[in-house]
Design goal:
alpha/beta, nine-stranded mixed β-sheet, 9 helices, 20% helix
């Protein structure tokens, strides 16, 4: 089926939205009608499995949340939980902690969509594909000099597609520790658009656990972050179990003198495809970046990483390091990695690199010689490989049993 036909059928199936997102989504739909769905001619989508993407688009959009029957672990006493369900106010009957408030209508209109647009992505198809209702926007601000912890859970519905829209404003000097959990179900699809604005000296610690629990679950997520001077943003992410997943973190240090840490892990098995396409741009001097992207691919699966760092002339004294480290556990698995640096400033310290390897025979032999069976030895080696990312998650993340899933699902 032609891309234009798929695009038209998908758009015809979508309900029209009202409120804040009406104009934005109208523009996005016109763009899709004109350009069509992604193809191999689009560099950012060239490696995508389009059969899987078309399956993502074939699911009907959810209009209610009756199909959600998930059971979640108990929440921590010191971390308020928000569960996002389609067509429901996500904070209805939730007592937000003192210092965390909903954005008012004017604040939403002034901020929503601005950070995504500032990333200047040409042919921004991922954003156009998001069809969240205006009723479902979760827009919160953390007040000045406050320090809070939140947990956001986004479940799926079998045979349905859901879209969500989240915005955070972290005011000057405020701190937020956020743990986000994304859960896929059989033959389900998710599309998320998250925007985060950090004011001066704000800090945001972002744990991101994305688990496709069963077959044929799909996810597309765009994360856009704007950092003011002396702000700190750290992102630790895990993607596993999705038949098809695409994650696009875009981080702009808009004033300089900010710090960004990104540590990501994607683990694939069977015939899954999981991709991360990151963009970090420095718009002022003295910015810092520490980025590590890891991938493990087994059986017939495919991992993709494309990481772009942009350092224009005004971003002098930038210090940026980007490293892609990958494990290939099968001769039929595939890993594509492409770290990129675009540097115009002449007084910077920027490095990047990529490695693809296998589990080391010497390490395995050492464990076997100590009486550890092969399966347990492989599990220990994988856990050690994962630890550089998962050790940064809060203890409360352990209740989601993601470590066990990462180890048990991979065949070495």
């Amino acid at each position: 089926m032609k891309s234009s036909t798929i695009c038209q059928e998908w758009l015809d199936s979508l309900p029209l939205t009202e409120g804040y997102l009406k104009n934005e989504q109208s523009i996005g739909r016109e763009f899709l009608l004109e350009k069509g769905m992604p193809s191999k001619k689009d560099e950012a989508w060239r490696l995508s499995n389009f059969n899987k993407l078309n399956s993502f688009l074939s699911l009907p959009t959810i209009i209610d949340s009756k199909g959600i029957k998930s059971v979640f672990p108990e929440k921590d006493e010191d971390r308020e939980r928000i569960i996002i369900n389609p067509n429901k106010n996500p904070i209805l009957n939730i007592n937000l902690p003192n210092g965390i408030e909903e954005l008012n209508n004017q604040e939403i209109e002034e901020n929503l969509g601005k950070i995504v647009k500032s990333t200047n992505i040409n042919n921004d198809i991922s954003v156009c594909l998001n069809q969240a209702s205006s009723l479902e926007i979760l827009a919160l601000k953390v007040k000045r000099n406050q320090n809070h912890s939140l947990e956001i859970v986004i479940p799926s519905i079998e045979e349905k597609s859901i879209s969500t829209r989240i915005f955070f404003l972290i005011e000057e000097g405020a701190k937020l520790d956020l743990l986000q959990i994304f859960l896929g179900k059989n033959n389900s699809a998710q599309n998320h658009l998250i925007e985060i604005k950090l004011e001066s000296q704000a800090e945001f610690t972002h744990g991101f656990i994305s688990l496709g629990e069963e077959k044929k679950s799909s996810s597309i997520c765009t994360l856009a972050v704007d950092q003011s001077e002396k702000s700190k943003y750290s992102l630790h992410s895990i993607h596993h179990g999705w038949d098809y997943a695409r994650f696009e973190p875009r981080i702009i240090q808009s004033e300089g003198e900010a710090s960004t840490i990104i540590k990501g892990l994607q683990v694939t098995k069977s015939k899954e495809q999981i991709a991360t396409h990151s963009l970090i741009r420095f718009e002022g001097p003295n910015g810092k970046l520490d980025q590590l992207q890891k991938a493990v691919a087994s059986e017939y699966s495919h991992c993709i990483f494309n990481g772009s760092i942009e350092v224009p002339q005004k971003a002098q004294k930038t210090e940026a390091a980007q490293l892609s480290r990958n494990l290939l556990l099968s001769k039929r698995a595939r890993i594509d990695t492409k770290p990129e640096l675009e540097i115009v400033a002449d007084d910077v310290r920027c490095t990047h690199g990529a490695t693809v390897s296998q589990l080391q025979d010497e390490e395995l032999f050492y464990l076997l010689s100590r009486g550890i069976d092969k399966q347990h030895a492989n599990s220990l080696l994988l856990q050690g490989y994962y630890d550089e990312v998962i050790s940064h998650f809060p203890k409360s993340a352990g209740k989601w049993n993601f470590i066990e899933k990462l180890i048990q699902d991979i065949k070495t």
